Amino acid sequence: MKTGKPPRLSEKLNADLDLIRQEHATLMNSQLEIFRTDFSDIATSALNTIETDIRYFLSDSRSELQRRSETIRRWLTISPWVIAGLILVWITSTVAVSWLWMTFLTRSELTELGLTRIEQAGQIWLTLDPDQTEMKTCTMAGTPIICIEIRGQ
Q: Does the N-terminal or the C-terminal CB of the chain have fewer CB atoms within 10 Å?
């Protein structure tokens, strides 16, 4: 019940100010709650994205690592035999080429000089071609030695 006494202006302004404060506090609480909800959603979404990216990266890295380790394992089982075979082929071909080269050079030089090399019973014999060579006794530095004179063609 009203007493008939008009409210004072300061009381009216204080009442209005209290009402505005309450509305403002309610609005701030509402906005803070919306912010918390939005921020929580953003954080959850970011966390899910990070977890998904990490899972994908780990899965991809694991499969790449498994693929590379399988390749390495395959090379380790094949490679020693391939390397050993290549080394054996290289050594064999080097020996064969060296022997052929030596034989070719030795035989051609001896033949050009009128000599023939014969290997028999662990001994090596040189025979002279009587048309191209002649055995003589020579003196070198005052010492007599046996020489083979090779006549030009």
A: N
Tell me the one-letter amino acid at 133: T
H or E element in which residue 49 lies: helix 9-113
* Structural domain boundaries in the chain: 9-113, 114-153
What global pTM score does this model have? Answer: 0.33
Instruction: Check if the beta carbon of residue 26 is closer than 8 Å to that of residue 19.
Output: no
In which region does residue 121 sit, left (phi positive, over 0), alpha (psi from -120 to 50) or beta (all else)? Answer: left
Q: What is the Cα–Cα distance from 97 to 62, expressed in whole angstroms?
A: 50
**Tokens standing for 121?**
């019973």
Q: What angle do CA 66, 71, 75 make, to 5 degrees?
A: 145
pLDDT tens digits for 83-136? 889 899 999 999 999 999 887 776 667 777 778 878 888 888 888 888 888 888
